Amino acid sequence: MDFTNIKTQETLSKLLQGDKVDVVLSDMAPNASGVREIDHDNIMLLAYAALRFALQISKVQSTFVVKIWDGGKTQQFGQNLLKFYSSVRAIRPDATRDESTETFFLARRFKGLKTS
């Protein structure tokens, strides 16, 4: 199942039957190529896809957790999260291997989407 495919996201949305969720957790990762910049770009595509989906299906005050591999787009992603969430932290789990760039963003208190 390819989460970046809009049909996949539509299928998941239909399963919710219009309900909104309290938490969206994305532990998705692409197959690693071994080229750090390419791998970072690919996981950021997944992270942004997860964020767009979370914005559509989340309740106000909900939480979003997403895995990334640290790289050049990490800081901007965190800043983008702050547009939608009141609190954003980057967390590196204790179980993460020292050589890994794996990081999670914990975004709390979704502000909701303004409609005009």
UniProtKB/TrEMBL annotation:
First and last residue of the signal peptide: none
Pfam families documented for this protein: FtsJ
GO MF annotation, one: rRNA (uridine-2'-O-)-methyltransferase activity
Keywords tagged on the record: Methyltransferase, rRNA processing, S-adenosyl-L-methionine, Transferase
Domain Ribosomal RNA methyltransferase FtsJ: 2-110
GO cellular component labels: mitochondrion
Family label: Belongs to the class I-like SAM-binding methyltransferase superfamily. RNA methyltransferase RlmE family.
Protein name: rRNA methyltransferase 2, mitochondrial
